[in-house]
Task: structure prediction
Amino acid sequence: MKQLILLCAIAIAGNVGAQYKPKKKRKDFFGGARDYRDFRSTGIQFQLGPSYTFTRSENEIQKSDPASLGNRYQYEQDPAGRIGGFAEIGLAHFILKDPFFKFGRIVDYIDYGIGFKLNGGRETTMFDNLDALGNVVTSTTGEGKFYHGSVFARFAVHKLHYLKGGKYFFDHSIGLNADYRVLGGDEDNYDGYFVPGTQYFAKPLAVQLHYDLGFGIKLKRGSYLIPGVQLPVLGIQQWHHGGNPSFQWYSNNYYPVYFKIKFIKLLVKKSNGCNPGSKEDKERNEKYMQGQ
Result:
């Protein structure tokens, strides 16, 4: 009887063990199945972020000629930046081989895109009438504000510097952008007093050379996140003040800086019907086929 009970217990335990499936390990929940997809060297890139127009840090008070016989005066023009933003969508192409250099690539990928950017600024003018001794008799002020909306096209070449482990990298690039203003541009939007002879207004079209610096993160195979900053370095089409990349509105220059988050997603190659597997699987399959 005891032997019969023991045999029944062993049978029940074996049946339960066959039906039991262990829980997934913690890493399986986050990593999932191994990715065997074959990616193209081309991907979609999208970037957006805020911008800010920087201005000079110190103002200079302008005064009339003390020897003049007319009214004596002084004025100060105080510029300030405003927060804007931009968004862009386009393509990225990774360079797999550099045919011109034997010892490595000088360009890791190129990218380009089209988008929209919004930049703004403001200017305050403080004007004082003076008496013969230089004392202030009357004062008046004025303020102008603006926002410009521009469509743009951009092209850049990139060089990557990977950190230890390969997941993180620095992304340096130099590029060219062409912007055309489609919103804003009201030259008379000034409330109060201003100095007409000092004002200049940038033309709608601007072409610039710019530099980008980003810190890249490899999210997974074929996906990259790159926070960074874009800095204009040379004005080409509007060559004022020796190629200054800032733009002038009212009586001051405004230098736009773009803070961005960029995302690149490589496109997947079309499959012929079956999963080709990993590189190791392909090599083993080739050896097997050679032995047949």
